[in-house]
Amino acid sequence: MKLDKPNKLRIGLAVAVLIILARLFVIQIVDESYKTDASNNSMVYSIIYPPRGIIDDRNGKILVGNKIAYDLLVTPKEVEAFDTLALCKALGIEPAFVREKMQEYYRNRRRIGYQSVVMLKQLTPERYMKFAEIAYMFPGFRGQARSIREYPYNAGGNLLGYVSEVDAGFLKSHEGYSAGDYAGKTGIEATCEEYLKGEKGYNIYLRNSHNKIESRYRDGEMDKEAVPGKDITTAIDAELQHYGQMLMQNKVGSLVAIEPATGEILTLVSSPGIDVEMLADIGSHYNEILANPYKPMFNRAVQSAYPPGSVFKLVNGLIGLQERVFTPRTEYPCHMGYQFGRNRLGCHDHRSPLDFEESIMMSCNAYYCYVFRGILENPEYGSVSEALDVWHEYVRSFGFGRKLGSDFPSELGGFIPDSEYYDKVYGKGRWKATNVISLSIGQGEIGCTPLHLANLCATIANRGYYYIPHLIKDSGDITIDPKYKERQYTMVDTTWFPEVIEGMYRAVNSGYNSGGTATIAAVKGLDICGKTGTAQNPRGDDNSVFICFAPKDDPKIAVAAYVENGSFGARWAAPIASLLVEKYLKGEISRPALEQRILEGNLLDKVKTD
């Protein structure tokens, strides 16, 4: 039987009606999500904030834990006339503050609607209990528990980072957050935010026609429990980190220690830094921190592009050996410096000529001028420009001139110049090796971070490779990126590194009379290998630089110390680094007088802060 057009239309409409009715049935009867939507004015959602994950050091000591605090919430539409003075006495606040807040809520009543807003943040349990005892007197006011951070060890605010309330910019770029939530903004807190944050829960309450909360929705069946954040284990040694901060107190610079066998960062100090006591309530200290002329928020360990100074001679020496422009037995003269044309690159007084190991031991500038010219004027290449680009690639293979890829936020890549850079400065084909000779001793346009220098030291300790430095270890159900477990080889053959190591050993352990520049770093039985550096500073005294590792044949720790305006490397950086090594390997200090001099040393007045 054939249906006419009107009947087809009626059947079509009937089917559409049935679909709509079925959908309404699902929405109203079956699917509870529509009933429990947060915008439903008959329901009140009480958010349960999860505790953030705990941050441990490598030995299981808690670096960052949690304690309970309370936010005081107000639901303006539920507020009745109340005793302002009684409320203020319980909370320890001024009446003017309460009046101002209530006026603000009244002005914004349409936007606020039935929502609850935070009047006071992070009340201590003691303070909140005083309110809780008389809370019945204040309809519309209630407390909301949340955990805030506490710090058993003073392990460095720059390293740990801080947690603060998210702002509009953060909400735009991060999903899953709402106004009132907190998130890690810097340091490890930011690096590990995805693990530490946990997942919010909530309790749902019903509101009656008079806007009074009367019961739990479905006896709590639709409530959601909060999921605590995951605990993480760092590579940091809490005791060593704290000791490193003591050594760097009243000095500007950085101290970084790495375990060569893994690339794990044992210590990362930026000085001056943020005291951990400021972190839990960073908001109240923020302006004070910003006003500090020494910029404690600035993490010099990963963000300062310093000239490396003489420690960079090790890199040039290794490149020269690999390129066969000299041998470990090659001797070069030095007569208080290196003469080229009418110019002179000076050096300190020492015996002459020297071979390669002696050049490291005595930190001879002239030796590396000869080596660097040999690299750039190598007849294997068609021009100095081409040779510089080959040198550039060698240097990058040590991790310089780029971000190392650590798991610490805001890492700086530094700068290593290439031929294109000097073509812009001098003009293409209009520069030669002597124009860039300062690169031979780690000066000129080279910029690197203390993390780069510590990584260089770990690379030498490993005889030619490194693991990308990192702060977080595998733990529980957290697995770090496999890249942190892969060896990163330099372009220099591993057979050349023992020559450098022997020179570094002699620099520390040959005795002052032999000409070693780092004898102050010697510790009996530790076989420390080190290299001093004095980096020119246009803003005052030279910067003091030192890298070292120990023991020589079974390296457990590699350290870079960088002290702004600290004069020559052996003055401040070498003793600081060697004390850190001794503390780590022996657990105690055998040179109390040296330790006292470093702890009491104050170089802040030497640093220009404008």
Beta fraction of the residues?
A: 15-25%
| Helix count, DSSP H or I runs of 4 or more residues | 21
- CATH topology grouping of the largest domain: Beta-lactamase
Major sheet attributes: 5 strands, mixed
Average pLDDT metric: 90
Q: How far apart are the first and last residues' alpha carbons, in Å?
A: 95 Å
CATH top level label of the largest domain: Alpha Beta
Structural class: alpha+beta
Q: Helix proportion of residues, in percent?
A: 25-40%
What is the global morphology?
elongated
Q: Give the uncertain stretches in residue-range form.
A: none
Number of domains: 2
CATH superfamily label of the largest domain: DD-peptidase/beta-lactamase superfamily
Helix/strand layout:
Blueprint: H1 5-30, E1 43-48, E2 55-56, E3 62-74, H2 84-91, H3 95-107, H4 109-112, E4 117-123, H5 125-132, E5 141-150, H6 157-160, E6 163-165, H7 168-173, E7 182-184, H8 187-191, H9 193-196, E8 201-207, E9 213-216, E10 232-233, H10 238-247, E11 253-259, E12 264-271, H11 282-291, H12 300-303, H13 313-322, E13 337-340, E14 343-346, H14 356-362, H15 365-376, H16 384-397, H17 419-426, H18 450-461, E15 465-466, E16 488-489, H19 497-509, E17 529-535, E18 543-550, E19 557-563, H20 573-586, H21 592-600
Parallel strand pairs: 2-10
Antiparallel strand pairs: 1-8, 2-3, 3-4, 3-5, 6-7, 8-9, 11-12, 11-19, 13-14, 15-16, 17-18, 18-19
